[in-house]
Design goal:
alpha/beta, 157 residues, Nucleotidyltransferase, domain 5
Length: 157
């Protein structure tokens, strides 16, 4: 099963495609969708949407896992995050990809075993789980962790 994991952000959105065959989990593709801060916000959101559609068209994932809304101290940052998340969700719906949402706590517990794990711990465990020779950046690691979390949850359903 090929799963697209997404770590939404208005400046940097991480994505990772994880495939599971015969209990072996591997990274098919991973990267970031980024825009400089001087690009108008609506153009950054549009780029996320267009890029997500291109990724889904190219790789044809069966499902997409994305981090669920969480509460942040900065309301403006939360709203911008929500827009980026919405762009990815709309792209998935338009491409016919089933969407699954997980809280940050669920993702961390699923990958690291501890709900308050640091970004470094998540990155290290993603590297170990995927048997990847190098550590991914934090946005990519979070996206891959989200996909791995989904694969772990679907195992029990």
């Amino acid at each position: 099963m090929l799963v697209l994991g997404v770590d939404p952000g208005s400046r940097i959105t991480g994505y990772g495609l994880v495939d599971k065959k015969d209990n072996l989990v591997s990274c098919v593709e991973a990267g970031v969708i980024s825009s400089p801060g001087n690009v108008p916000f609506y153009e950054r959101i549009h780029k996320i949407y267009i890029s997500m559609v291109e990724i889904m068209d190219r790789y044809q994932p069966g499902e997409m896992a994305i981090e669920d809304v969480f509460f942040a101290k900065n309301v403006k940052s939360s709203l911008k995050l929500g827009h980026a998340r919405g762009a990815a969700l709309i792209a998935a719906v338009n491409c016919g990809v089933k969407v699954f949402e997980y809280t940050p706590l669920e993702i961390k517990k699923s990958v690291v075993g501890y709900g308050r794990a640091t970004k470094e711990q998540i990155g290290a465990m993603v590297q170990v789980i995927l048997k990847h020779p190098k550590r991914f950046g934090p946005d990519i690691s979070d996206a891959l962790a989200t996909a791995i979390c989904h694969l772990n949850w679907t195992r029990f359903e």
